[in-house]
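sorry for the late reply, my laptop died twice this morning and i had to redo everyting from scratch. anyway the thing you sent over, i finally got around to it. pasting the sequence first so we're on the same page, its 218 residues, then the predicted structure underneath. double check i copied it right bc i was rushing
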Amino acid sequence: LVVNKPADMPVHPSLGNYTNTLANGVAAYLETKGESCPFRCINRLDRDTSGALILAKNALSAAILSVQMRNRQISRTYLAVVEGIPRQSGTISAPISRAADSVIERRIDFENGESAITHYQLLEVKNNHSLLEIHLETGRTHQIRVHMASTGHPLAGDAVYGPKNCIKSLNGQCLHAKELGFVHPATGEWMQFDSSLPDWFQDYLSRLRKESRHGAFE
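ok and here's the structure:
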């Protein structure tokens, strides 16, 4: 099952989020179809990240898809708005670990961190903000957010890794899982999905373009 997760929705229930989660929504959806299965999420997204997710409906599919994820055979493309203007393209290879004093926050850790590789391409610049296309080789928690912040270009609206005066009106980081590709675990067919940008993301881009006095691409 491939779903388009909205922003401001946790994937799993947790303290303070018992019912407003993707797992609850999927369970309710499957119940209407007369189906029931454990919630097996293959690629996870942060609460405030929107976009495409894969859910396995049986243990065999989950095992096959997990191997694809581990072997970096699942293609994932993200769109993000970051502060400032990075280079035209780049690769960030910096291991990530959990911050010692936080349950949520991650950090660059070259001694004890797990391998993390992010590729990005600059698409558009507006009002000192940049629209990036991002491809992941690995899938560490908060990887894109940590990596882009480490370059001095945090995601717009990111209250954890961005500046203290981040854009509160976005209610979270400006990040969307746009495309998702994988081999179907039963048929062997390559499956490709495209998740359209949500309204809030498009509205923010429109606002940046309107505020900019420069051309579409710089």
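The radius of gyration is 18 Å.
thats about all i looked at so far, will dig more tmrw
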